[in-house]
Amino acid sequence: MRIANADGRLALVTAGHVIDVAEASDGRFGPDVQDVYDHWTDFLVWARQVTSAGGTPLDEVRLGPVAPRPRQIFAIGLNYRGHAVETGLDIPDAPMVFTKFASSITGPYEAVALPTESVDFEAELVVVIGATARRVARADAWRHVAGLTVGQDISERELLVRPLAPQQFSLAKSFPNFAPIGPVLVTPDEFDDPDDLEIGCAVGGEHLQKARTSDLIFSVSTLVEYLSAVLTLLPGDLIFTGTPAGVGFARRPQRYLRAGEELVTTIEGIGELRNPLVDA
Ligand code: ZN
Description:
This protein is mostly beta strands. Helix content is 12%, strand content 32%. It is built from 5 helices and 19 strands. The strands form 3 sheets. Strands 1, 2, 3, 4, 5, 6, 7, 8, 11, 12, 14 and 17 form a 12-stranded mixed beta sheet that branches. A hairpin with a 2-residue loop joins β15 and β16 (206-212). The radius of gyration is 18 Å and the shape is globular. The protein binds zinc ion. Zinc ion is lined by residues 75, 122, 124, 153, 240, 242-243.
């Protein structure tokens, strides 16, 4: 099953169409996209019996973020071997966790203003939590996942390494619109193997990242186990799972985002984000 945020309203996505959930369910489920994760199990039961007939044609440009107001956003650093190597840092023996503040969330096709000339791209698989998770074992982890979506962990590299503000990544990754997600959320059962999806990123038509999520050092299940051992994961929370090799700052010469380019982020079986880049 696929859901989307269409014109700010929760929608089921079927072949080329969207079905407004509040209308189709006669108000049993409201139009608010974020709220559905608090009722995810009931929603799945209802959604699975909806016939694909009807709906309105999918107008991509009207899609917003599939989780517009998560209570918590987790992001994982250095979670692909190739990316750890390109940064010159050691491969971590436990997940390196930081946050992206929620005000940075935006939709799949929104413009991203570049505050400096050292803004970088990070294609990432994003997990949306579908059930409260506290001390969840790895084997039960996927049952707490509503679905997967595409994300960009856009990063301002000067602020990231500013000498007086070391040891935190979160500010540099939280400028407005630095966390595009979408275009849809896809439930785990839709994939042959939700742990093995091709992920890629192109900037200005140049393909700069390509990997498979099976290369993650800490898998989705491991991240849910690790995080939920410390804190409570809440429905609608996001986990940005880390980026593969090929980011701009590790290239020689360095390759940062430029106004006028388009940032395209793709994951097999989910879709792509297409974010135009503009001057701040
Ligand atoms: Zn990242």
